[in-house]
Amino acid sequence: AKEKGRNTFQLYTSALNERAVRRMTMEGELRKALERGDIQPWFQPRVGLRNGSVVGSEALARWIKPDGTVISPGEFIPLAEETGLILPLGEQILEQACRRVRAFQDAGFPEQYVSVNLSPRQFRQKDLVGMVERVLQRTGFDSRLLELEITESSLVQDIDQTMATLRRLREMGLAVAIDDFGTGYSSLAYLKHFPLGALKIDQSFIRGIPTDPSDIAITTTIISMAQSLNLKVIAEGVETLQQLNFILGLRCDEYQGYYFSKPLPPEAYLELLRQRKL
Ligand code: C2E
Ligand code: CA
Ligand code: CA
Ligand code: CA
């Protein structure tokens, strides 16, 4: 039994080592990818429910390996967040997103806006507002066409700092949206104190529509209360016509989801805008 115990221990430590080694390798690769500019934003269309037009997009990070393999953010954003690489990475994605969308604007779609994700660590970074300001300057991007998405956990960490940051972003003309709304701990009543622009209903609630009564109740409540707080409401993860019809009936403002389109590389996104203009 003693022998067996030792073997198990060895197995355990070598598995740990393997994980640590993989992590370090991945961290090194992530650094290189960052230097080479291999991490780029793709764009998922956001559709206005009033007239069905593509009003803007959400920028979603993709790691494009030299051999063309595309890696999802779920596989590298958490590591970037842990290591702090998310700060230079986030700035690069924001800058790329502004450059690309500026090009869409110049190509005949002057009202196209873009929404960019900020992780909690990014939202807490020392000079977030200054960083955003400099990116806008470098890219010549109109701040009124930029939205930042933060999660409820970012909101509730340090209320005073959150309030100050949100106020300064608002003064610059930017909109801030609460992402994955309904999955965190903040209440709608509490939200009214923050200068926010929009709420995004988390896809887990949309998934249950039209069959799950509690998802229907939650979605309906979020939309009606957001309206009374004068916040724009976006439904994400819309995959079926039934889901689309349901939120249309509730007068949600915009939606995004596979039903309309997956996230697209910039060239394909511009092509989609052009096709729909014809
Ligand atoms: P998120 O911000 O909640 O983004 C929505 C995710 O849902 C995206 O996954 C999108 O591709 C996916 N999605 C959109 N429509 C549908 C649908 O109809 N059905 C389903 N099943 N999924 C849909 P993605 O691109 O893999 O991103 C995952 C997460 O990674 C994002 O979740 C966000 O939290 C994070 N992320 C992505 N890009 C960035 C970034 O540039 N910076 C930061 N900090 N985080 C990012
Ligand atoms: Ca998001
Ligand atoms: Ca989301
Ligand atoms: Ca999410």
Automatic annotation (TrEMBL):
<feature type="domain" description="EAL">
    <location>
        <begin position="23"/>
        <end position="277"/>
    </location>
</feature>
<protein>
    <submittedName>
        <fullName>Diguanylate cyclase/phosphodiesterase with PAS/PAC sensor(S)</fullName>
    </submittedName>
</protein>
